[in-house]
Amino acid sequence: MGRYILKRILISLATLLVLVTVVFALVRLMPGDPFSSEKMTPQVRQNLERYYGFDKPVLEQYLTYMGRLVRGDLGYSMKYANVTVNEIIAKAFPYSADLGLRALAIAVSVGLTLGVVSALNRKKPIDAVCVVVAIIGTSIPDFIMGYVLQYFFGIRWGLLPIAQYKGFAYTILPSVGLGFYTLALVSRLMRSSMLEVVQQDYVKTARAKGASRFRIVRKHMIRNAILPIVTVLGPITASVLTGTFVIESIFAIPGMGKFYVSSVQSLDYTLVLGMTVFFGAFLVTANLIVDVLYGIVDPRIRVARG
Amino acid sequence: MEAIGDAPDRSLFERVGKDRAGMEAIERPNLTYWQDAWRRLKANRMAVFALCVVGLYVVMAVVGPWMTSYSYTATDAKATDALPSAEHWFGTDMLGRDLWSRVWMGARTSLMIGFVATLLNTLVGGLIGGVAGYYGGAVDMVLMRVVDVLYGIPYIIVAILMMVVMEPGMGSLIVAMVVTRWIGMARFVRGEVMRVKESDFVAAARVLGASDATILVRHIMPNLMGLIITNTMMAIPNAIFTEAFLSFIGLGIQPPECSWGLLAREGSQTLSIYPLKLFFPAFFISTTMLALNLLGDGLRDALDPRLRGE
User: Fold this and answer.
1) Residues of chain A above pLDDT 70, percent
2) To the nearest whole angstrom, how far is the Cα of B143 from the nearest Cα of chain A?
3) Do B282 and A148 touch (CB under 8 A)?
4) Which of B49, B145, B149 best tests the A interface by mutation, with the highest count of A CBs <10 A?
5) What is the pLDDT of residues B192-250, one digit of tens each?
6) Do A287 and B152 touch (CB under 8 A)?
7) Closest of B255, B292, B228 to residue B106, by C-alpha
C-alpha cells in the first residue's frame, strides 16, 4: 500500500510540473500583453516590464517563477495593481468552494437516492421518470441549465434571487444549476450498479436467510453498489470545477471561475498562471485522494496497479 | 446375471445415416456482424428516433440557411430583436440578423466541430493506443507514463489557454480538442488491443506469416471496430458541449460567424427581455446532445450485445 501511494504521489508531482511548464509556455505565447492601453508610454512600459522581469530571458523567468512557486508565492497580478495572486485566490476560493461543495452535496445525495429508488422499482413508472431525468440531465450543458433556472425561478416567477451570493436563498439556483449534470450522472451510474448487484449471490443468500428487505438494500446492496461511484469522483470534481467558470458568471458570484475567465481574456499572465497552478494542484490532489481511497476500499486495485 | 434382452432385430430398423447436405443447410439468411447490429439498432425505438433527429439536424444544417432569403450575416437596423414571424421564422438578433439562418449556420459549425474533432481524436488516439498496446515493451512503457501524467491535467484549462494563443475559429477549436482529448481514446484502444492480441486467431495469423501491420489492420482492428465506434459516438456530444462551452465564454467561434455556443452567448445577454433568443440555441444544443446520447446507448447495445445496458 505504501508503495502504491508513493507511486501515485510521484505521478501527481510530475503532472503538476508538466502542467505548470505547459501553461507557462502557453501564457507567454499569447498574442498581445497585459500592459497595452491607450495611456501607456514607452517609459512606463519599460519600467513595468522590468518590474515583472519581462526584460530577462524566458528561461530565467521560468526558473524564477518556479523558485517562487516552490515557496508558495504566486506573484503579483498584472491588472489589479498591488494585489498578489495569493490574495485574489484567498478571497475568491471560499465562494467557489462553498458553491462546489453545495453542488456536490446535492448531486451525490439526490443522485444516489434517485439511482437506488429507480433500480428498486425497475420497470415501474417511477423508474421511467428517474431514467428520463437522468438522460435529460446529462444532455443539458450547465450554462444552459443555469440560465433556465435563472429565467424561470428568478426572472419569471420571482421566487429566488438571480445574482450575487449573500445568504442561503442566493445559493440555491447556482448550486442546483452546477450540480444537475453530476446528479444525473450519479443516478445513472448508481442505477446500473444496483441492477448488477441485485443479481449477485450474496443478495440471494441474504434473502434466503430471511433478512428484511430494508436490511438487504442497505447493508448488502447499497454498500456494494456504491463502489463504482468512487471511481468517478475525480472526473466529477473536475466537471464541477469547470462548471463554476460559467455558473459564476451567470449568477455574478465573485469566485475563482469568474476571475479565471476574465483573467484569460485580459491576459493577466501571473493571475492566469497562478490560478491554473491552483486549479491543477487542487484537481491532482483530489484525484490522488480518490485513487488512494479506491485502493483502500477495493484491495484488488492495489494488486493490479501495484 | 440375466441378459436384459435379445439383440434387436436389425431388419426392423432402417438406417437413416447423416444427411450431410441437410446438416449444413443454412435455414436463415446469413447476416454479417454489421447487418446484425443494424437489425438490433432498428429494433430499438429510442435509438431510431434519435437517429432521425440527428439526421434531420444534419440535413437542416445543409439546407436550412438556403430556405430563407436572409443571409446569416446580413444586418437589418429596422428589424432588430424581432420576434418570430412569417418574415423571420425564428426572429432576429440585436443587429437584425435572421436567427433561422444563423441557427442552421451555427448547426453547421457545431456539428462539424463535434464530428470532425471526435473523428480525429479517434484516429490519433486509436493509432497511438493501438501501436502501444500491440508492441508493448518500451514504447508502451513510455506512452503509459506520458498518459499517466497528462491524464491528471484538466483538459478544459489547457483548451482555454490554447484558444487564447491560437487565432479563434473552427480550426483552432478542433486542434485544441484533439490535443487535449486523444488520451482517453489511446488508453481505451491500448487496453482493448492488449486483450485481443492474445487471442487464438491472432496467433493463427502470426503462424501463417502475417506481418504486424496486417495483423493489426486486418485481424485486430475489425474485432475492435464495434467498441471503437461506440466510444467515438459517445464522445461526440462531449465535443459539441466543449465547443459550446468555449464559444459561450467568448473563446471559440467569433461573430459574425456563428455556432450554437456563440448564439447562446449572444442570447444570454438579453435573457430577461428576449428569452427566445437563448431558447433556440439552447434547445438545439440540448436536443442534439440528448439524441446523440440515446444513439450512443443504442449503438452500444447493438454493436456489443454482451454489454447490453438496462
Assistant:
1) 94
2) 14
3) yes
4) B149
5) 888 888 888 888 988 998 888 888 888 888 888 888 888 888 888 888 888 888 888 88
6) yes
7) B255
Q: Among partner residues A140, A147, A195, which is closest to B310 by beta-carbon distance?
A: A195
Structurally, what CATH architecture does the domain formed by A101-265 represent?
A: Orthogonal Bundle (1.10)
DSSP state of A150: I
Please state the pTM of the whole predicted model: 0.82
What contacts 24+ positions apart, CB below 8 Å, involve A76-82? A76/A52, A76/A270, A77/A263, A77/A268, A77/A270, A77/A271, A78/A34, A78/A35, A78/A52, A78/A267, A78/A268, A78/A269, A78/A270, A78/A271, A79/A34, A79/A263, A79/A266, A79/A268, A79/A271, A80/A268, A80/A271
Taking only Cα atoms into account, the Rg of chain B, rounded to an integer number of angstroms, comes to 28
User: Is it the case that residue A90 has pLDDT exceeding 60?
Assistant: yes
Q: Which residue of A has its CA nearest to B267?
A: A147
CB of B205 less than 8 A from some CB of A: no
Fold of B33-61+92-307: MetI-like fold (1.10.3720)
Give the residue on A whose Cα is nearest the Cα of B274.
A151
Amino acid letter for position A129: V
Rounded distance, CA A253 to CA A269, Å?
Answer: 22
The model's confidence at residue A306, banded by pLDDT at 50, 70 and 90, is very low
Cross-strand bridge partners of residue B92: B98
Cell numbers placing B39: 437489425
pLDDT at B52: 92
Using only C-alpha atoms, chain A has a radius of gyration, in whole angstroms, of 24
Task: Inform me whether the C-beta atom of residue B310 falls under 8 Å from chain A C-beta atoms.
Answer: yes
State which residue of chain A sits closest to B264, comparing Cα positions: A144
Residues of B with Cβ-Cβ distance to A133 under 8 angstroms: none
Does B264 lie at the interface with A, CB-CB under 8 angstroms? Answer: yes
Average pLDDT over residues A200-225: 85
Domain limits, chain B: 33-61+92-307
Q: Residues A202-231: what's their mean pLDDT?
A: 84
d(CA A151, nearest CA chain B) in Å? 7
Mark yes or no for CB contact A195/B154 under 8 Å. Answer: no
Cell of A65: 517563477
Does residue B308 have a pLDDT over 50?
no
Q: Where are the domains of chain A?
A: 1-79+268-306, 101-265
Residues from chain A contacting residue B165 (CB–CB below 8 Å): 26, 29-31
Q: Which residue of A lies nearest to B268 if distances are taken between CA atoms?
A: A147
